[in-house]
Amino acid sequence: MLDLYYWTTPNGHKITIFMEEAQLPYKIIPVNISKGEQFQPDFLKIAPNNRIPALVDHAPADGNGPLSIFESGAILLYLAEKTGRFLPSDVRGRTEVLQWLFWQMAGLGPMAGQNHHFGLYAPEKIPYSIDRYVKETNRLYGVLNRRLADREFIAGAEYSIADMAAYPWIVPWKRQQQNIDDFPHLKRWFEAVLGRPAVGRAYRLAEEINIAPTVTEASRALLFGQSASQTGC
Questions:
Q1: Number of structural domains the chain divides into
Q2: Which residues form the GST C-terminal domain (predicted)?
Q3: Would residue 205 count as lying in a domain?
Q4: Which of 48, 110, 114, 216 could cysteine-pair with 133, CB 3.0–4.6 Å?
Q5: What is the pLDDT of residue 218?
């Protein structure tokens, strides 16, 4: 059994998409980040960065007891290697997938996340910050659009963990002040992933778990106002 510590964010969606695609048996343990549940001591033992998602595999390949993994990219890689799915075994195919997985982790996710923060959640609307991250998100959409001009999926002909990682960060394109019609190759890929039954199941599951996805003043402090001293570091 796999225990998935999860909330309904783009990084959380990556893992439920994989679970549904691979039809793995798993149990969701909700971690409501708006209520500060990510800072509970028991969760910190599993996820030392106090962030979701996190995974506990109760039957890892080495047979040495439960194994915990944090960071969504690391979890995707772990699950791909565990199941032998969505990650090519040849060196070139594997490299293609991993470099685009890391591109999402280091680029698309953080930049789109800052776009969300300054455009939607920051108490003070700072034009420079909003403009900077909207433009950088736009640039990254362009990178992905060019990449998809001559291939079906991000790493080539086969759907992979690179697609699972990037897709949830494109879903909120309107919130990111982007026009998906400006990126025809990305839009074609986006609609193809959207149409996958497993992706639909993953997002319907999110709707059942988080029925009130709002940010209040209290949750804003928990989500955006933590320092090392406040998290016990």
A1: 2
A2: 90-214
A3: no
A4: 114
A5: 63
SS (H, E, C) 34-62: HHCHHHCHHHHHHCCCCCCCEEEECCCCC
Residue 49: which CATH number?
3.40.30.10
Q: What is the pLDDT of residue 227?
A: 67
Element (H, E) at 29: strand 26-30
Q: Which two tokens stand for residue 59?
A: 């039957």
Same domain, 80 and 132: no
Residue 56 domain-assigned? yes
Q: What is the pLDDT of residues 145-197, one digit of tens each?
A: 999 999 999 999 999 999 999 999 999 999 999 999 999 999 999 999 999 99
Measured distance CA(81)–CA(163) in Å, rounded: 16
Strand 2-6 to 26-30 pairing: parallel
Given a contact cutoff of 8 angstroms between Cβ atoms, the answer to whether 118 and 126 are in contact is yes
Phi, then psi, of 144 in degrees rounded to 5? -70, -40
- Domain range for residue 78? 2-85
pTM above threshold 0.70: yes
Torsion from C-alpha of 63, 67, 69, 75, nearest 10 degrees = 30
Whether residue 202 lies inside any domain: the answer is no
